[in-house]
Design a protein that fits this description.
Elements: H1 6-18, H2 22-35, H3 40-53, H4 56-69, H5 74-86, H6 90-97, H7 101-104, H8 108-120, H9 124-137, H10 142-155, H11 160-170, H12 175-187, H13 191-204, H14 209-221, H15 229-237, H16 243-254, H17 258-271, H18 277-288, H19 292-301, H20 307-319, H21 323-336, H22 341-353, H23 358-363, E1 370-373, H24 377-392, E2 403-404, E3 407-408, H25 419-437, E4 456-466, E5 472-473, E6 483-490, E7 504-506, E8 521-523, E9 529-534, E10 539-541, E11 549-558, H26 560-564
Antiparallel strand pairs: 1-9, 2-5, 3-4, 4-11, 6-9, 6-11, 7-8, 7-10
Helix pairs in contact: 1-2, 1-3, 2-3, 3-4, 3-5, 4-5, 5-6, 5-8, 6-8, 8-9, 8-10, 9-10, 10-11, 10-12, 11-12, 12-13, 13-14, 15-16, 16-17, 17-18, 18-19, 18-20, 20-21, 20-22, 21-22, 24-25
Amino acid sequence: MSILSPAQWREKAQAALQAQRIDEMRQILRKAIDEHPAEALLRNSAGNLFLRAGDIAESEAQFAQAMRLSPQSLEYRTNRAIALSSLGRNAEAIAVLAPVETAGASDAAYCSIRGTAERGAGNKAAAAQWYDRAIRLEPNRIKALHGRARTAIERGEPDALARVDLALAANQGDADLWLARAQALDVAGNPAGARDIAEQLVQQAPNWGEGLKFLAQLRLAAGESDFTSHYGTAMERVPQDPNIPVAWANILAGLDYNAEAAEVAARARSLFPQHELFALLEAVYAGAAGDDDRAEDIFATLAIDTPDRWLHETRHRMRRHELERAEGLLDRLVDDDPQAIGPWALRGILWRLTDDPREGWLHQQDGLHALRPLHDAERILPAAIEKLHALHDNSPLPLGQSLRGGSQTRGLLFDRIEPEFAALHDAIFSTLEEHRSKMPPADPAHPILRHRDTPWRITGSWSVRLSGGGDYHTSHIHPQGVVSSALYCLLPKDRGDDPQAGWLELGRPPPDLRLDLEPIRTIEPQEAHLALFPSTLYHGTRPFAGDRRMTVAFDVSLVQSQLHGEATNA
C-alpha cells in the first residue's frame, strides 16, 4: 500500500525544487513513480518539475510517459512538444501535436506551442498561421505575440515593426523584443534608430551575446574600423563572464582579424586560467594568423581532448605538413561522427597532399559537381532579380561569413513571403532533383552519396551581390549541408584582365592553411545556371573587375526525420 498519494509526492518534490535541492527532488520523484507507475498526472507533474529544474531531456521523457498513459490528453501532448522544441527536435514536436490538431485548434496554448514548433522546423508560413490563431483566441498571449513578431521579421513581412510593437506593448521588459525592434528598424532603413536601441541594450545587458553581436553588425555597416571595441567595454563591466571574450574573438576571426582574435583569447586566458578553452582558442587564432610556433607551444601542453580540439589541431598539423599526425586526428574525428562535414573536407585536402587515390572517390566522381541550367529560368528569374536588388540596397556586409566585400541578404531568403522567391525555390528544387538523378549511385561509406536517395530540403538560403574591384568569397565550406550551390543571377560583362575572374574554384584550401594546392575544378559562371557540388568541398570565387555580380546560394540538407532518426516528419 502506498504511503503517500501522488499529490503528496508532488508537493514534496515541489518543496525540494523551491529549496534548490535538485538531487533530493529527483529522488522524491523516483520514489513517487515507483509507487505510482501508471499515474499519468504524476508523470506530467514530474515533467513540469524537471523542466523548471532545467533538465529538459528528463522532462521530455516524463511527458512522453504521461502521453503514453493518456494519449488523448491535449495537455500532456503540448507539454511534451514544449520540451521537444526546447531540445531542437521540432519535427517530433509537430508529430506529437498533429493527432490532436482538431481539439487544439480552439486552444490558445496549443496554437502558440504549435507555432513555435513549426517555426523551429523552418515552416515559417505555418508558424505564422498558428501564432495568428493563438492571438485571435487570446489577444494578449505573450509567447504567441513574441513568436509572431519574430516570424514576421524572418519572413520579411511589411508590418513586422508593428507586430514587434504589439508584442512589446504586452511585455515591455523583454530584451529580445527590443532587439527585434532594432532589427526591424534597420531593415526599414533606420539604422540610427536601430543603433540607439542596440547601444541601450548593451548598456543594460553588457554580457548579452545577441545584443553585442547586433551592435557589432551595425558598427561594421557604418564603416567603423574598430567595430568590436564594445566587447572590451563589456569585459570590463562584467569581468567574471568568459562568454564575452569567446564571442569577441569569434567575431574578429570571422572577418580574418586572426591576430587580434588571438590577443583577445590570450587576455582571457590570463583572466580565466581555469578555462582551458581560451588556450585552445589562442592556439587556433595564432595558427590562423601565421604564428605556428606559438600555436605549437600551446598544443603541446593542452589537456583538452575533444573533437573540437582534434579538428583545430588537424589544421595546425596540416599547416606544419605533419601529415601523419593530421591523418590520425582525422581518423578519430570521422570515427566519432561520420556525418560531420568539416573532417571530410579536411580529409579531402589531406588525401590530395598525400596522393591518396581515395580523394578521387571522395570528390572527383562524375556527377558529384556540375553546372546545370535553372529550370524555367526565363519565367522565374527576372522577377526574382528585381526583388533581390531591392533587398540588397539595404543589406550589409555580414559578420562571420566568407564574403569579402559586397552585401548579403538578411535571414533566410526562402522564408520570405514574396511569391517571386517561392517560385524561385520551386525551380531550384526541381533542378536539384535533376542533379540528384545524375549523381553517382548511393554509397553508404561516402559522406555525401550515403544521402543520395534520402529526402532532401533546401536550407540556409541567401543572396550575395558583389561589385567589381576586388569583392570575392574566400575559400570555405558549409558544414550544415550535404550539397551546396550558387545560382548565377547576374554576371559582369567585363571581368578585367584575369580570364578566370569571378570563376568558382572547387577544392582550393582555405587561405589560413597556407597550402599550395590548386582547385580540383574551376567553373565559369553562366547566368541562370546552378553550380552544384558536395558540401565537403572547399569553394570560393576569384576577384573580378567590372560591374555587379549577383548569386543566390543555399545548402541542401536532410529533412529532420533523417537527421534525428525520427519516425515521423511533419
